[in-house]
Specification:
mainly alpha
Length: 88
């Protein structure tokens, strides 16, 4: 038997597009946010390569490490395409 649990004091403000199955991701990132995400992605790939190397999985480590320069190149191209103002 299915019982619906409802709390009248807790109501969603709007639909969460990421949590709704089949809904497209809503992303309107600025150039600076995209640049930061690309650099974070490169750092995560380097960490994964180090983890794979420590686990004696050389092929996986080489794969993850080889993907890093491409991501950093994309971030550099984005930075040169948009004139970022210096941070305060």
């Amino acid at each position: 038997m299915f019982i619906s649990i409802q709390h009248p004091t807790i109501r969603p403000l709007s639909a969460d597009a990421v949590a709704t199955p089949g809904a497209p991701r809503v992303e309107d990132l600025g150039a600076r946010a995209l640049h930061a995400r690309l650099l974070a992605n490169a750092a995560a790939r380097r960490l994964r390569a180090a983890e794979r190397a420590a686990a004696q999985r050389v092929e996986d480590a080489e794969y993850w490490k080889s993907a890093c320069p491409m991501v950093v190149a994309k971030a550099a191209a984005l930075r040169s395409a948009h004139a970022f103002s210096p941070l305060p």
